[in-house]
Structure formats: structure tokens, C-alpha cells
Amino acid sequence: MQRLNCVSLLLLLFFVVAALISFVATAHRELPMARKVDEIGDHLQAKLDNQASSVSVSRATAKVGDDHQEAVMRKCKNGRNNCKNFRTRKLPTAADGKIHFDGHMPFTADYHSAKVVKAVHNEASSLLICDDGVAVPATVVLDATGFSRCLVQYDKPYNPGYQVAYGILAEVDGHPFDIDKMLFMDWRDSHLPEGSEIKERNRRIPTFLYAMPFSPTRIFLEETSLVARPGLAMDDIQERMAARLRHLGIRVRAVEEDERCVIPMGGPLPVLPQRVVGIGGTAGMVHPSTGYMVARTLATAPIVADAIVRFLDTGGNSGVFAGDALSAEVWRELWPAERRRQREFFCFGMDILLKLDLDGTRRFFDAFFDLEPRYWHGFLSSRLFLPELVMFGLSLFANASNTSRLEIMAKGTAPLAKMIANLIQDRDR
């Protein structure tokens, strides 16, 4: 016990040092972008409700133990976005070689369907070279191609964790779930035979079930590996899901939609700044601990657009920047210091999750969901910044069992030291 207290004190000291670094680094700065992202995110959530394929439910459930353990009930609204409707409403339509913005903006733009193979940059403009030989001129190049890393450049080894998931929206004979609840994380493994090879695989790298029922016979089900390096094979995920559904007595009659997700998480940010501006996955905007990205990317889009308009050199006297200087200003708006430091903490969380087996993961989330809602809500939604995240980490550590504390110390000390070193380096940038 004395040794445990000494190591706990050491870990606490690490967190205090990180807090001091964060306070020193941010004391002279306000967080206008962060506040704006939160406001826009709230507005977007209301808009997205109109495109959801389900009604919002009032409760979410997380099951971290076996069948005999009580569910963890949380008050939060959840909904599943209708991807087809979302794309139809949010993307401009193309006709006659023009992009029409459906009344949102009073102009059209040239539309060219081809694959960009490279970008050639001049002092104040760029050329996008397409695979059909066409060269498209541009003042600003915005790369939203996900994780292809074709145009946005990295200068550090790219070795992310991977979230892998397989999901179906299905008609079923029936299911055991309440239709007014969403099952957020079900880490139980009672569906896997004792002593089986698949149970051992799940012990080493666990997966959880996500379930959102819409009616007694219509439900969305998804089996997810939160993060692993390398990522699990899709066949492995599907095998685990099939075993779980058999155990639950769920017989699928028809699959309306299915989805296969492989999401890189964490890893280095791209070179900051650089000529091509990224957004979304190519800009490192995936939450390294959860895999969430869409809401933050949508909330950031108008901020990036405003920055481009504000700094764009139109050829007259109204422009402020052009070329490299313009891109640098836009990157600064996209990744201000507070967001970079926030991401470092999320990567620290990912590094711990990568090392936890099933029992360790259960203990971790048992403590996580017992925190004050403002902490775990803020962590999942990227609304906590480094000073608040340090308090979140201290609360999580204090709330964890002794076994979980030992795991966090044994498996998190090196990632914590790495995070602090990166924070110091970022402060001196």
C-alpha cells in the first residue's frame, strides 16, 4: 500500500506539472474559436435532428460487466443520422457542369469530375493536376479527402491506432432491448464460449456492442473495436457480432443498410502550416480516444471558410494574405494552440486504451461513466480543454479502483511523460 501511495503521488505530480504547463501556455489567450465551435455544434445538432432516421431517445446505457451487473444509466439524447439524407441535403447538386448551392449562396461554380493526382504551387496561386490531364487553377486548395494523405503533407511517422466497426440497420424477428433506450457500450463477453479461441481474442482486444432500437422489429446494431494497433480484421469483428446476436436470440430477417468502418485515430498532426489546407480526417480532426469527427468537422467548416474569406487576396487592395501566408493563417484558425494541446491529451488517453485488455477496459469505463456528467460529456464531445482535462484525469484516477489505478500507472506513465514533453515542445513553438 505504501508503494501504491508513492506511485500515486508521482502520477499526481505529473498531472500537476501538466496543469501548470497548460495554464502558463494559455493564461494570456482567450478561446474564441473553441467557444464558437461549441455554439455552432449546438446549432448543428438541432439541424441534424431533422435528418435523423430515428427519434432522439432520453437515455443511454453502458454495460461494463457481466449479465448480472446493473446497467449504467445516463441522461443524454442520441440519434442516428440518415447518411443518405445528410449527403443529399448538405452536398451541392451538379448539373450542366455547374454546382448549384440550393439557394444557400447566390452563385454557381464550375464542376469537374476527376481525381487530383498532385498540386503545383506558385507564389500566389496553385494548380491541381487531375488524372484526366486537366489543370484546375485555385487560390486556396482545401483537402477533404479523408485519410488518403494525398495532398496534405506529414513530416513524422504515421502510426495511428484504428477503430474498426461493422454495423447493420436491420429488420429482426425481435430483440431484448427497450425501444426508448440506446445501448451505448456493451463490453460483456458472456456470448463467447469459455475456453474458445474467439473469447481469448476478445480478452486481448475487446469489442463492444452499440444498439439503437427504432421499434420492436427494427434496430441498428454495431460491433466495435474502440482502438487497436494494428486494427482488427473486419472478418473478426463480424464473427464476434454474429456470436453476440445468436446469444441474444436476435434473428435478422433483412438488412436495410450495412457499414464497415476503419478509422485511423491519433498519430501526428500534419505539417503546420503548409500550402494545402486540410479539414476532417486529413487534418487530424478525429478524436483520438473515441473516433468521433463529424460534428466537430461540421462545426469547424464555417470557421475555416470565414478565415479564407477574411484573408483571401482578391487581386485588389482588400486582400491581406496570399499563397503560403494565406494558408498559414487558415491553419492557425483550424489548429489553435488550445486545440493542439487538447488533442495531445486525447492521444494520451488513446495510448492507455491501446494497452488495456477486456478486464482493464471494463474497469476503466466503470470509473469513466461514474464521473460527473460534465466530465465525460465534455471528453466525448471535445468541449474540455487542457486545464479542464487535467481535472478530468485527476477525477478519473481518484474514482478508479485500486486495480485500475495500478493499471493506469503501469501503462500510462510513459504516455503521460510523452504528452508532457509534447506540450512543452508545443508551448515553445
From TrEMBL:
SUPFAM superfamilies: FAD/NAD(P)-binding domain (SSF51905). GO terms for biological process: carotenoid biosynthetic process. It is an enzyme of class 5 (isomerase). GO terms for molecular function: intramolecular oxidoreductase activity; oxidoreductase activity, acting on paired donors, with incorporation or reduction of molecular oxygen. Its EC number is 5.5.1.19. Residues 1-26 form the signal peptide. Keywords: Carotenoid biosynthesis, Isomerase, NAD, Signal. Pathway: Carotenoid biosynthesis; beta-carotene biosynthesis; Carotenoid biosynthesis; beta-zeacarotene biosynthesis. Coiled coil: none annotated. Belongs to the lycopene cyclase family. This is lycopene beta-cyclase.
